[in-house]
Predict the structure.
Amino acid sequence: MTWDKRIFDLFFATLLVLILGPVLLGLLAWLWLKQGRPLFYVAERMKGVDRPFQLWKLRTMTLAEHDAGVSGGDKEARITPAGAWLRSKRLDELPQLWNILKGDLSFVGPRPPLRQYVERHPEIYAEVLKSRPGVTGLASITYHRHEAALLARCATPEETDAVYSRICVPMKARLDLIYQRHRNVCYDFDLVFQTIGNLFRRDR
């Protein structure tokens, strides 16, 4: 990660913590009343081929004894009403400001993958994870709806895994590598504003 990108991340993450801290506290109180504890979902993700970290989110699903893999149609019934609203606004990702401050994430970059897909596609992720994973990115902006539509049609964990591994991983990697070749602070600003714009368009 370049020094200017790290300064960008630290400055805006600190600013957002100060501004949105009361919002996060309010969301935590609301979630506690709506669906109880635990309030956070903490899961392993990868920031390098052999570099795991703990990703923080607000919990949006009911608890399950065995929970692995990406979310597809097979997990849709577990999304709580409060969780569905949080996901629609991407507010479930607010705790990732902590990951940015720690240096696990950047604001912009490839979404951090699960270990199982890094181990299954080492040649892909050896290139993709040369960029620090991000909260949003080119692949998140341009491919998210198509990926969601593909995975929503999956009825079993096995089908979700196959579709994600065979179709989504290579497609997102191509977009992540396009970002990697053109990344700079101005491009990061553009992608952040595109992400915010998409949220407003989704509301309308």
Notes: The two ends are 36 Å apart (CA to CA). Residues 56 and 96 are 6 Å apart (CA to CA).
